[in-house]
Specification:
Immunoglobulin-like; 358 residues; mainly beta
């Protein structure tokens, strides 16, 4: 956390507040202490950004005041629920936060990520991604504003690209006819790059200049086109993609609790039969990712924690007619072994279909 000492009625008060990079689903606290004998009646915290504003007003008479604003941070994001638009409109937003302590004001800003981070977990490192060229694809990277972007195709020289990065999560569509790989480099030597944030160190979320070399994202080309193609938002707010092989499909039907009595005639007598009124069917695609390397295995584990997953679909008679269908991933336990390559089972639950109704 960052800290600031302010003067209030002749007393030095310490405010601990959010880092320059914050996460909506972690506990994000504002802590004010050192009031001593000073009487504090009202503390007001205002959060604004993305066209929204929330204000939390508290009464405090103790020496320490603490507020968790993570709930407000989550509400700053636009959750899309329209048909074909299920998801989050933007996984990173800039916020302004003000703290009013009995008329004494202190303000700061933070870039909030739609996600969370655990102790010891690294955020936004240089890494390798499987690039499925037969399907729509983007990759996400967190960057400072105005960093130059360089690209190398199949081991060639790095070429400066048009346009720079903006501060926040950049979603980039790769380009170029590559046979093996495309490497994107962000920033030059000495630039304040997309810093790699390791939660074991306090200073890393403050975007200090000169603490990281240039960032590289390596896209390894995979031209396979057979399987179930998935897209999701991982726990750090990045878009991820993977092509999963299909093993089988399970059809599960369910009847609701409503029933209707129906009389029927047979052999000259009348009988009563109880019919369930509604029937629904859920299809589960039994899939697997085969021969997954440790890097892809780690990426795929985030698929099971994401509440926002889509499956790519297209019209077989008109492949140009494409769309993303929201699906769910069945909970599972995945064990990462010391093997260089291993398989992972992934069961995909398709949206339920109402079949018939009496």
């Amino acid at each position: 956390m960052r800290t600031k000492i302010i003067n209030y009625q002749g007393t030095s008060i310490t405010i601990s507040y959010l880092e320059a990079i914050s996460f909506a689903f972690n506990r994000e606290l504002i802590i004010i202490k050192g009031f001593g004998n000073v009487s504090i009646t009202t503390i007001k915290v205002s959060i604004s950004g993305n066209g929204k504003q929330f204000t939390d007003i508290r009464e405090s008479s103790s020496d320490i005041f603490k507020i968790d604003i993570s709930y407000y941070l989550q509400q700053m994001f636009d959750i899309l629920t329209n048909p074909g638009k299920v998801g989050v409109s933007n996984t990173g937003i800039a916020l302004s936060i003000g703290v009013d302590i009995g008329g004494t004001f202190f303000g700061f800003s933070t870039h909030c990520i739609w996600g969370a981070i655990s102790p010891g977990e690294t955020f936004n490192p240089s890494h390798e991604i499987t690039y499925f060229t037969a399907f729509p694809f983007i990759f996400s990277v967190f960057a400072r504003d105005g960093l130059p972007i360089y690209k190398s195709i199949d081991g060639g020289n790095f070429v400066l690209q048009d346009g720079d990065t903006y501060e926040g999560i950049n979603n980039i569509s790769p380009s170029g006819n590559a046979q093996r790989e495309i490497v994107y480099r962000f920033g030059g030597s000495g630039d304040d790059v997309i810093n790699t944030f390791d939660y074991t160190f306090d200073y890393t979320f403050r975007l200090k200049p000169g603490i990281a070399p240039e960032k590289e994202i390596r896209l390894v080309v995979n031209d396979c086109s057979d399987g179930v193609y998935l897209r999701w938002i991982d726990r750090q707010g990045f878009y991820r993609y993977y092509l999963v092989s299909q093993r089988n499909i399970t059809f599960q039907t369910e009847a609701d609790d409503k029933a209707v009595n129906m009389d029927y005639e047979a052999f000259g007598r009348w009988f009563c039969n109880v019919k369930r009124q509604n029937r629904n069917e859920t299809q589960t695609v039994g899939g697997f990712a085969s021969l997954v390397n440790p890097n892809d295995f780690f990426i795929l584990t985030s698929l099971f924690t994401s509440p926002i997953v889509w499956m790519f679909a297209y019209n077989v008679d008109d492949p140009g007619e494409q769309d993303w269908v929201p699906v769910q991933i069945a909970p599972a336990s995945n064990v990462m072994t010391s093997a260089a390559l291993q398989d992972m089972n992934i069961n995909i639950i398709l949206p339920a279909t109402p079949i018939q109704k009496l």
